[in-house]
Amino acid sequence: MALIKHGNLVEDLFTAVGDGDELPSKGAVLVSLECWQDNRAALLERADAVGVRLHSDQSPELIEDDLKHISLVALEFPAFRDGRAYSYARMLRERFGFKGEVRAVGDVLMEQLHFMLRTGFDAFEFESDDPVRQFETAMADFSVWYQPSSDGKQTATQLRHFPRR
Amino acid sequence: MYRYDEFDQKLIAERVKQFDRQVTRRLAGELTEDQFKPLRLMNGLYLQLHAYMLRVNVPYGTLGSKQMRRFAEIARKYDRGYGHFTTRQNIQYNWVKLEDTPQILKDLAEVEVTAIQSSGNCVRNITSDQYAGSAKDELADPRMYCELLRQYSVLHPEFSYLPRKFKIAVTGSPNDRAAVAVHDIGLRMHLNEAGALGFEVLVGGGLGRLPYIGHTIRDWIEPEHILSYVEAILRVYNMHGRRDNIHKARIKIIVAQMGIDKYRELVEAEWERIKDGPLQVPDEEIERIENYFAPPQYDALEDETELLLAQSADNAGFDRWQKSNTVEHKVSGYRIVNLTLKAIGLPPGDMDADTMDAVADLADRYSFGEIRVSHRQNLSFVDVRQRDLLELWKALDELKLARPVLDAVSDMICCPGLDYCALANARSIPIADDINRRFVDIDELADIGELKINISGCMNACGHHHVGHIGILGVDKRGEEFFQLTLGGSSDQNASLGDRLGPGLPQADVPDAIAAIIDRYKSLREQGERFLDTYRRVGIEPFKDAVYGDKDRKAVA
Amino acid sequence: MQMIIANRLTDGLVVFYTDGGGWSVDIAEGIVITDEADEDRLFKAAKSDEEHCIVIDPNLIDVAVEEGSPRPTAIREAIRAFGPTA
Lengths: 165, 557, 86
Prior knowledge:
The structure holds three protein chains of three kinds.
Chain A: E1 2-5, E2 8-9, E3 14-16, E4 28-32, H1 33-38, H2 40-45, E5 50-54, E6 72-77, H3 84-95, E7 101-106, H4 113-119, E8 123-126, H5 131-139, H6 156-161
Parallel strand pairs in A: 3-4, 4-5, 5-6, 6-7, 7-8
Antiparallel strand pairs in A: 1-2, 1-8
Chain B: H1 6-27, H2 33-41, E1 45-47, E2 52-56, E3 62-64, H3 65-78, E4 82-85, E5 91-96, H4 101-109, E6 127-128, H5 143-153, E7 168-171, E8 185-191, E9 197-203, E10 215-221, H6 226-240, H7 251-258, H8 260-274, H9 283-292, H10 305-314, H11 316-325, E11 326-328, E12 334-339, E13 350-352, H12 353-366, E14 370-373, E15 379-385, H13 389-398, E16 413-414, H14 429-438, H15 442-448, E17 453-456, E18 470-477, E19 480-487, E20 499-500, E21 505-506, H16 510-524, H17 531-538, H18 541-548
Parallel strand pairs in B: 6-7, 7-8, 16-17, 17-18
Antiparallel strand pairs in B: 1-2, 2-5, 3-14, 4-5, 4-13, 8-9, 9-10, 11-12, 12-15, 14-15, 18-19, 19-20, 19-21
Helix pairs in contact in B: 1-2, 1-4, 3-12, 6-8, 7-8, 10-11, 16-17, 16-18
Chain C: E1 2-8, E2 14-17, E3 23-24, H1 36-51, E4 55-66, E5 69-72, H2 75-82
Antiparallel strand pairs in C: 1-2, 1-4, 2-3, 4-5
């Protein structure tokens, strides 16, 4: 399983910790929402980064107040057809101003990467023989966008009337 | 009509290229059918009973002659010489090959036509009043907002994997020809108390297995906020719509479950957050798009009803056609003309390539090169000079597009049904054919008057049977095709869902049942009452009795 | 009696699994299955063709043989085999 962040193949610095498992003494950890809620104090005390993984029926509103302590939010796609995480990513970026990593996990396919990028994901965990190439291909799929989104790209409407120099 | 600029053209070219790659990956086995299916659906490609079917968008039912000619070419080159106009103002080709589809889309892109999002769990073709811009009863022209919504919804990164499909319709006339009350979002242009033009917003309407009339979520919203408001509705739906059961996944279900008040609360809260953001449409863009919908160069003409009366006196056929198929225009000296695609022996809404070319030529000659598609599966020329009507009628008559049956019994809506569709339970086209052959006499049809029959081959209701004055639903009963009738539906501004008449009838009994219903109507009607009016006054019992009253013999008036 | 029906991937046309292990648009060339053991074996082979991107969604359907010609017993499959009735 490859992890692409900002277009590069990177090592996952976060250790996924299962519910009920002991937290490692150090290192960045990725926990479920339940684990976060149950062990909040302990997790806040950690010197290293903490990430929270949300299921597709868990809105980021549930961790809104804690986002300043969280470095990574992993949003699950249980099936690529389940498009809730696109709204969650935008919520994190645009409504909450979250600046940490927003990672797509689960049933992540090349053909959805472009939309994920637009909605605010900056990291992608997916199966591929050539993840960097697939990512670059997906990124280049479109150069015209009609809708404003988290990526701040100028829309066709904006370019028609107010092109940035 | 709207013309693509460099941005529009580039986007669809990129989309075609992306789909080309997806097809290549599929054919090479890099994508499974499961992974490919949503991708091909978002490019309008279905796999039906016999072959792939391509659904091509006709944005808010507006078509130029050049595009119609391209439709003819596609039909000849890649299909079996014909196309089918649908209840969402689109065109479908029933016999395309997957390997040809990228090239078909390129050919369409050349004339500014796409199949983007004509299917899939995303926002579909924005539909509207086929008379937009020309109807005398119109308050405001909805087309410019349809175009705005089209661009807004195409390749929306957040809303391409909704729980289910999403359909938006817009009307600018208080006489709703766009069926807005049975759409996921329906928009009605109207004036508020201060006399300002805006939209009433309806949500949660829909047909299918569980039909609903839409609720008003907002009485009035300024046009500049329409995109942000739609975004708020879509966002709440994307997050809260059910994903556990495909039959419970439309917005109508979640609105019914939560209640409109709760749904409104969530939408308004979201809208408050985003309304002042970048979705506000700048005046420059409003103006830019509006220019494309400026009225054509009408001749300055006096009303020519006198001339038409004189011509009609000599020609009974022309007289009937005028009365039935033409509609008042807002501009003096002009008329709206309907081309009925309801010839006997042809599936409703079908048109062959040669006829498409002929229609394109007539559009150029008589209606500024523009054609409209109606959700009742007919076409319209909306800017015809009164003085041209006689010549136009002759030409249409030759093409079998002039049956004077608009809104009459023969003007049925009919889905493709089990002859084509993988979802169907029963064949719908033979039913339409049977009814068409039973009611041939034009005088009889005129006497019956307005009676909209809508036929669906399954509960998905693509034939809009729930909102037919008479609705016919094909069902499968122990491997046999049966047909359930409903009465009293309507999709206009007084929308209603039809009431079930009784147990399903075998195919052979349907025409008699329709005849019995019509005879009962005629015996009960009061001065000026259409079928629907009589039905609403007397209720279902007289009609139940007419069809089922005597169980020992076939239904007879 | 049964046959195996599918849609061909490239052109979407309805095809029937044949004796030679291929697929034909002509139902008359399709293999009629009467033996349960054959059913399993042939269906497995058809599914393998699905994985190899030759066909989509192979299915076993009931047929009757009339005057030597196989005919699906369900209306839907008959329409698939012989084309639209309209």
